[in-house]
Specification:
mainly alpha; 69% helix; 3 helices; elongated; 83 residues
């Protein structure tokens, strides 16, 4: 669990670094800190939305094969098993 939390924190740190870098922000100035906070919050909200979408798609995916395929006695259309 510590590894996962550590990876999330590193990911968030690099996200903050890229926001500061891409927006050319000097965090010593109050206006830039406010802009950073807005951009970082927006990035976090977007990331949460993406995680929600991916998780929803994974939940809705059909992970179990059809019973017809498993119960079929005629497997002539399948390739031969390697030796």
């Amino acid at each position: 669990m510590r590894i996962i939390i550590g990876l999330i924190l590193v990911f968030m740190f690099f996200g903050a670094f890229f926001i500061v870098s891409n927006h050319n922000l000097n965090l010593n100035e109050k206006e830039n800190r406010i802009e950073f906070a807005r951009a970082y919050y927006s990035w976090l909200v977007d990331m949460a939305g993406s995680v929600k979408s991916v998780t929803g798609a994974a939940i809705r995916a059909e992970w179990v094969p059809d019973k017809e395929i498993n119960n079929s006695k005629d497997n002539s259309d399948l390739p031969p098993m390697p030796n």
